[in-house]
Amino acid sequence: MYTSEMLASMKNVEKTRNERLHAAISRMGAEEKDELLQEFHPDYRSSGFQVLKVGPNKGSKVPVELAELLEGHSRLHSDQLDLNQVDYDVDVLIIGGGGAGASAAIEADNGGAKVLLVTKLRMGDANTMMAEGGIQAADKANDSPAQHYLDAFGGGHYSNKPELLEKLVLDGPLAIKWLSDLGVMFDKEQDGTMVTTHGGGTSRKRMHACADYTGAEIMRVLRDEVSNRGIKCIDYAPAIELILDDKGHIGGAVLEDLDSHEHLVVRAKTVIIATGGAGRLHYQGFPTSNHYGATADGLVLGYRIGTELIYADAIQYHPTGVAYPAQIYGALVTEKVRSLGAQLVNSEGQAFMHPLETRDVAAASIIRECTARHKGVPALDGVALWLDTPMIDILSGEGTIAKRLPGMLRMYEKFGIDLRKEPILIYPTLHYQNGGILVDSQAETKVPGLYVAGEAVGGIHGRNRLMGNSLLDIIVFGRIAGRNAAASSAKCELGRLTLAHIDKFEAELKAAGIETTVVAPKLLPTYTHGRQARVEK
Ligand code: MEZ
Q1: What is the pLDDT of residue 58?
Q2: What is the CATH topology of the domain spanning 83-314+434-500?
Q3: Is any ligand 1 atom within 6 A of the Cβ of residue 472?
Q4: Is the pLDDT of residue 479 over 80?
Q5: Which CATH number is 4-40+316-430's, of 3.40.440.10, 3.90.700.10, 3.40.50.2300, 3.40.710.10?
Q6: How far, in Å, from the CA of 112 to the mean position of ligand 1?
Q7: Partner of 320 at 20 to 30 A CA spacing, among 173, 288, 383, 496?
Q8: Other C-beta atoms within 10 Å of 231: how many?
Q9: What is the number of the ligand 1 atom nearest to the C-alpha of 135?
Q10: DSSP class of 190
């Protein structure tokens, strides 16, 4: 399956393996990391960013592709719909059907609220489903939430919002228990204790996993729970605009039925944005590990009604995306592969960094190796590095890959590559938006009644998230948002519904001299045939 050029380079990896098995690689110092990031991390490439001219973050830089959407036109005119003609009238509207949305729905239901969950694709089509390696929580005797806090704070370059990070780590053990009680089958030792491993930047083994399909297992259970409770869900119905009431409180959303093109008006006393990430915007041309619907919709909807973004210029490139073969280009190779012993190795068979540096540092280091140091292996249209997977079974015992990484093994087997015997080729892939909408510790934005949970939130992870803290935040903040939205809806009297903010935003665009044909949210990635493709089938 590998080309002759790749096979020649692979010989170097095999030649040095024995020596590398016993040689410890030291971690980089703080100064070295800073220099590396500034020179090689894509967040520092000025051509990838644009300064916003309108909205709450006017004057700040965000990725060019996101700026176009944030400064795009609404899909609606303010007077296009009669907002008295309400299709759904609910207490809590949840926009997004991933782990955060589902957790919020369960807690809002516990709170006695009338809940509606709407999703652009299908319930569970979300980055949650794609998460592989695990979920962090400090629930072992040698660990503590304080230790977890310090790790995440360091990994986030000390920029995490303290009140959000505190909630994350304190609620971590509870989140694992909640998921276990619902039926998530975490990996356990013979005696029933949880199997935990390290992730990049962790000082304790606190990654709980369900083999290498942790997110899929969590989503399976959450989706079942939402369905068993009879919570109303509508698929293929993305929100295309938020609605306010005449006092500036959130009032609901307009949905678009992707089959009929009809608009549906949802009157809601509270709204939770749980729309996930932006990988499908392919910042700076990077491939992505994200699901098909990850187009930053929630950020766009929130921005237009005045919610502020934080760290929208901090993007996570997962160090190990598939670089070969083409059929799975950009897909995630879980960090757990390195937690279990695989090393990153260049074309000459040299290990050039500690395998568990934080993700931003690891991605920048790989890019440096491939560009400035010219030690990449030609793969498809670019260059890549080796991830020496056969080291895992040598270091952790034969059968470890089959047991702990069955999904990864199967994915590569389809293309004739046995990662127990051969290394694999990787390169950074666009994985996560570290930033997002600013919320307080109750998951509420500055717009009363509007909450956010999951990847659409910014600030929890600072400028760089650690592995496994995203599966944790969707549970912790999904539950907080659901609980609070239910409680606040019980006290809410909505005023007259309006879409007047669309005119206000249009006026801002005009005053800033922005002339654009872009309409947002984008809903589906550029390379789609969209609705037509579905109809033609
Ligand atoms: O948190 C993540 O992004 C994660 C678990 C990814 C992975 O490498 O498996």
Answers
A1: 98
A2: FAD/NAD(P)-binding domain (3.50.50)
A3: no
A4: yes
A5: 3.90.700.10
A6: 34
A7: 173
A8: 20
A9: 5
A10: T
Q: What is the pLDDT of residues 113-126, one digit of tens each?
A: 999 999 999 999 99
Is 291 an active-site residue? no
CA 349/CA 228 separation, integer angstroms: 52
| DSSP-derived 3-state class of residue 89 | strand
pLDDT at 529: 55
Is 335 near ligand 1, meaning CB less than 6 Å away?
yes
Q: What pLDDT sits at residue 527?
A: 84
Catalytic-residue membership of 73 = no
Strands 309-310 and 436-438: antiparallel
Q: What is the mean pLDDT of residues 297-320?
A: 98
Residue whose token pair is 């935990």? 196
pLDDT of 24 reads 86
Residue 528, pLDDT > 80, answer no
Ligand 1 center from residue 211 Cα (angstroms): 12
Which of these is catalytic: 338, 431, 461, 501? Answer: 338
Residues sharing a CB contact under 8 Å with residue 475, sequence separation 6 or more, in sequence order: 99, 100, 103, 135, 175, 178, 179, 218
